[in-house]
Amino acid sequence: MDNHELFARFVREQTAALLRSAYLLTGSAAAAEDLVQDTLLRLLPKWDRVAGADVPMAYVRRSLVNGFLNQRRRQSSSELVIDELPERIGGRDVGVDVTNRDLVWRLLATLPDRQRAALVMRFFDDLADEEIAAALGCRVGTVRSLVSRGLAALRDQAQRERAVNQS
Amino acid sequence: VNRDSDPEDLLRAVLAEYARQAPDGARLAERIITEADRPGSVRERRGAAWWRGWTLPVMAAASMAAVVALIVGAVQWNRPHRTASHPAASSPQSSLLAPSSGASHVSTVDAPFVGFRSMDLTFVSVDEGWTLGNAQCSNAPSLRCYAIMHTGDGGARWTAVSNPPAGVAIDGACATSRCIDHIRFADPSTGYAFGPNVLFMTTDGGQHWTEQEGGATSLEVANGTAIRVFGGTLQISPVGQDAWRSVTLPGTDAVGGGVVRALSRVYVPAAAGGFYVSPDDGKTWTEQPNPCGGTSIQTMAAAADGSLVVVCSPGTGAGPHLLISDDCGRSFTPGPGRLNTGQETIAAADRSTVFVVTGGTLERSVDHGRSWTAVAEDTTPGNAAFLGFENQRTGRWITGDGSVIWTTRDAGRTWTARAFG
Q1: Cβ distance of B45 and A18 shorter than 8 Å
Q2: How far is CA A86 from CA A90, B20, B331, in A?
Q3: Each residue's pLDDT expressed in tens, for chain B with a length of 421 residues
Q4: Which of A64, A92, B111, B158 is the most exposed, fewest CB within 10 Å of its CB?
C-alpha cells in the first residue's frame, strides 16, 4: 500500500473524528472543514512520516491544533465565529440544563485559543496531559495550568453573566 | 451526577453535544481525497476569509505545495489501474456472510450519528420507521449518547428526531434508572418511547415528547389501542391519550412477561404459568393453560397473521421446543418444532413460517419448526437486538450488537443488510 493509499484510508477513517474536534475548536462548520482539509493536505507530502508515527492520529491532531492556533494568530480579531446553531437533535440526553449548556458554549468561545484547545483535548478527546502537551508544544505543567485556568474562567464568567441577568 | 454543579461534567456534556453539529465527515473525506488526486488543482475553500492576510511567504509556500501536488498528481496519473473512488467507509462486509442466495448486498446507511447501534425498531409501514439506539457522541469511544432516528425509505437514510428528556440508556441496561430502552409507533405521528420506569408519548412524529405516568417493560400498539405491562400488571389506553387503566384479567391478574400482538390478537404470559389472550385488541380476555406440559413458557411471539408461537423451556429428558397455534391458543401444532438452545430470538411471518436467530445465524422454517434453513449470517457479536415482522412479507432483524439491520420483503426468503457506519 503506497502513501497515497494510506492517506486515503486514513482520511476516510478519521475525518469525522477530526471534524468534531475542529468544530469544537473553531465553532464553525465551514472553518472546521477548512481546518481539517488544510491539515490533511498539508501533511500529504510527508505522509510516510505520519504513517510511521506510533499513533498517526496523534500526529495529525497535533498538526490540526497547530494549524488552528497559527490561523488564530494570523487573524486580527480574537472573536470566535459561531455558526447559527442548527435545530438541536436530541441534545437533552445528557440531562444538562439548556441555559447552562448554551452559556458554556458561548463562554468557551471567549477563552484564549490555547485554553480552549486544552479544554477540548482534555474533555472531548480524553487525552492525557502528556498528549496535550505534545499537541500544544508545551510542558505538562503548562497543560495543567491551561486546563485549570480555563475551567476557572468558565466558572467566573458564568457567575458574572448570571449576576448581570439577575440584576 | 449534577452536571450543573460540576464544571468538568458540564463541559464534557456541552462538548459532546455540540460536536454532533459538526459537518458530515464522509463528504469532506471524499473531497480531500479528490483534491489530493487532482494534479495542480486549486483547492475549493469554503471560508474565503481563511486566506486573508496571507502574504508573499505564504504564496511561496502555496506555490511549493502546488508543485508537490503536481508531482504527486503526475505520479498518480502515470500509475496503471488506479481507481478514482473508493467505498465511502470501512464496510463491515467482511463480517457478513450470506449462505443463501439473495442476501449478499450490504450497504452503509446514511445516518447523522457516528457508530450508531440500534437497540430497538418500530415501523408503521414498509418504509416509515424509527429506531432507538446509542451513538458515539465524542471522540472518546467510551462516551455514548442515546438517539432516536426516523426513516422514510425503509432504512437507507435516517434522520435524527428529538429525544425525550430522560437519562441515558446504553446497552439496554435500563432496570433501575430513569431511562428508555424501547420505542413503538402506532402511526406516523403517535409513538411511545419507554423504559421500566418512564413512558413518553409523541404526537408529532418524535419532535416533541410528553411524559406519562409510570413506565413499561413491554408496550405494543395496534388498531388504536396501546397495551403495556407496568409493575407486573397489564394496562390499556387509547393511542395518543394518557388514559391508562388496568385490565381485568381472569385468574390472578398478574402477568409474567411481555405483550405480543398481531392483527387484533393480544397475548401475554400469565405469572401463574399459562397465558392470557384477547381476540379483540384487549376488550375481552380469556386465560389459556400452559401448553408446554412439564416445562414453562420461555418466549412468546405473535406471527404477522395473528398466530401464536411459543418457545417452551427445556425440561427433564426434553430439549427446548416450539409450539404454534392459529386459534388464539386453544390448540397447538402437534409435533413440536426443534430448537437448539432455547435461547434463540424468535419471530414468525405466519403460522408456518418461523424464524430464529441463533449464534448469529438467521434460520427459517416453513414446516412449523421441524426443519430449518440458514437464510442470513452475521458474525458481529450477539444474536439479535430485534427480530420481527410487520406483515407476512416484511420483516427486520437487528444484529446483537445493533450495527446492522437486515430486511426481507419476501417473507424471509432473501434478506439485505444495511450497516450503520
Answers
A1: no
A2: 12, 10, 57
A3: 233 456 787 788 888 888 887 877 888 888 888 888 765 443 333 333 333 333 334 344 445 555 544 444 333 333 322 222 222 222 222 233 333 333 445 788 888 888 888 989 999 998 999 999 888 766 666 667 778 999 999 999 999 888 887 665 555 566 556 788 899 999 999 999 998 888 999 999 998 899 999 999 899 999 999 999 998 889 999 999 999 999 988 877 688 888 999 888 999 998 888 999 999 999 999 999 999 887 888 889 999 888 999 988 887 667 788 899 988 888 988 666 777 765 678 899 888 889 988 877 899 988 888 888 889 888 777 778 889 998 888 999 998 888 999 999 888 888 999 998 7
A4: A92
Look at residues B207, B128, B173 and name the one whose alpha carbon lies nearest to residue B396: B128
Assess B334–A contact: CB distance below 8 Å, yes or no: no
d(CA B395, CA B362): 12
Using alpha carbons, select from B224, B162, B230 the residue that is nearest to residue B194.
B230
Residue with cell 428529538: B162
The Cα A105–Cα B13 span in angstroms is 10
Nearest CA in chain B to A84: B21
Rounded Cα–Cα distance for residues A30 and A102 (Å) = 20
Asked if B21 lies within 8 A of A29 by C-beta distance, the reply is yes
> A162 Cβ partners below 8 Å, 6+ apart?
none
Distance separating alpha carbons of residues B24 and B33, to the nearest angstrom: 15
Question: How are beta strands B308-312 and B321-325 bridged, if at all?
Answer: antiparallel
The span from the CA of B418 to the CA of A94, in Å, is 28
Give whole-number Cα distances, B328 to B40, B220, B287, B321, B387, in Å: 73, 18, 10, 19, 22
Cα distance between residue B301 and residue B60, in whole Å: 71
Q: Are B23 and A33 in contact (CB under 8 A)?
A: yes
B173 touches chain A (CB under 8 A): no
CB distance A15–B28 less than 8 Å? yes
Amino acid making up residue B86: H
Cite the beta strand spans of B92-232 per DSSP E.
Answer: 96-97, 106-108, 114-123, 129-136, 144-151, 159-161, 182-185, 191-194, 199-202, 210-212, 218-222, 225-230
